[in-house]
Amino acid sequence: MPLKIGLIDDAGWFYPMVYAIALADVPDAQIVAGTFLATDKRMKLINRASGAVGQQEFIDRFGLTTYDDVETMIRTEGLDAVILFGEYSKKANHIETAAACGVDIFTTKPPAVTMEQMQRIIDAGETHGVNITVPEHTRFNAAISEVHRLVTDGAIGPLVSARVLHQHGHLTPGIVSSDHWYANEYNGGPEISLGWYTAGLLRWFIPAEPLRAFAEYDNFDTPEMPFMDNGKGLVRFANGAIGSMDILFSTDCEYPTTELELIGRDANIFLRITAEGTDYSIHRADGTEHVHHDPEEPIAEEMRQWVRATLDKTPPMMPAAEAAGILELCLAWKESARTNAPVPLPLEPVLATSSLPGWLQ
């Protein structure tokens, strides 16, 4: 029997279309219903690369039965799992509702904007015995997964440092209005939504807890938006490794979306993702090896793995507890940029319960 899935969309922007298309190619999955919670007409548009489609067009395309509330959808349809999209600061509420109905949950990133919300999500899964999965998409890029296996197997020796770059285009009011929920400081801004990619890869590749973080953020080219559009960060780990990140959110030209630089005691690896695919090189004392992977959609692999794990009742590939570590590092960088000072980790309780609005305060 295929996995029966319902969608919970609270103004999810472009993710509903991306994930619905990916799931359509997974034979063991069936999207049967959706609860659409956005009340603002502008938020009822579901984006895709070629523009926006109306909510009803989306519903018709995927043959969904619609409901007004999450609990009714889950119980009426007898769902096995739900996928949650939308406003970050509201996700914990929806996850608690779905978990109480006994279904497994996949939430798009980020799942929360405070550690307090994140703990509620973890508690919901443990209380009701359901799996809650949070993605970090680039892990499912085949080349990055391949490099992670190499590093884990000791191919470059112990990591000395790692650098992650994430470039996400240029979000202007022409794409998202300044009064969209994404521009509301209480939804964390790109410091969390884009920091998620960099923090996620650093925490995946470096097998140690972070000790302190420092970051510099600024808005250079997007004055209409209330958040940073470029940033750099550092993090020191308990095993001595140093991590660094770059977030680029004001890029109007073709440029790599991801770079990963891994410096080991025995060898180095450099990886880059562009429109032409993913290329990485392994640099050793006796020469350099180059590897190329054609372009791919990591969300498709992400969905295949999630559906399989959910059907097999095996642990999720990235549980909520692991996501908490990513969020904590994003929040530490954000607070460091606000105060212009290093931030010790783990976070102090007062920071763990705050969304830290106003990165320039």
In short:
With 361 residues, the protein is an alpha/beta fold.
Q: State mean pLDDT (0 to 100 scale).
A: 91
Strand arrangement across the biggest beta sheet: 16-15-14-13-9-12-11-10-17
Tell me the series of helices and strands, N- to C-terminal. Answer: EHEEEHEHEHEHEHEHHEEEEEEEHHEH
What's the number of helices?
11
Structural shape: globular
Helix content: 25-40%
Task: Chart the SSEs and their pairings.
Layout: E1 3-10, H1 15-24, E2 29-36, E3 46-48, E4 51-53, H2 55-62, E5 65-67, H3 70-77, E6 81-86, H4 91-100, E7 104-107, H5 115-128, E8 132-133, H6 142-152, E9 159-167, H7 190-193, H8 195-205, E10 210-218, E11 230-237, E12 242-248, E13 258-264, E14 268-274, E15 277-284, E16 287-293, H9 298-312, H10 320-339, E17 343-344, H11 349-352
Parallel strand pairs: 1-2, 1-6, 2-5, 6-7, 7-8, 9-12
Antiparallel strand pairs: 3-4, 9-13, 10-11, 10-17, 11-12, 13-14, 14-15, 15-16
Helix pairs in contact: 1-9, 4-5, 5-10, 8-10
Walk me through this protein's architecture.
- The longest helix has 20 residues, at 320-339.
- Residues 356-361 have low confidence and may be disordered.
- The protein is 32% helix and 28% strand.
- The radius of gyration is 20 Å and the shape is globular.
- The chain has 361 residues and is α/β, with parallel strands linked by helices.
- The N and C termini lie far apart (53 Å).
- The protein has helices spanning 15-24, 55-62, 70-77, 91-100, 115-128, 142-152, 190-193, 195-205, 298-312, 320-339, 349-352, and strands at residues 3-10, 29-36, 46-48, 51-53, 65-67, 81-86, 104-107, 132-133, 159-167, 210-218, 230-237, 242-248, 258-264, 268-274, 277-284, 287-293, 343-344.
- Strand 3 and strand 4 form a beta hairpin.
- The chain has a nine-stranded mixed sheet.
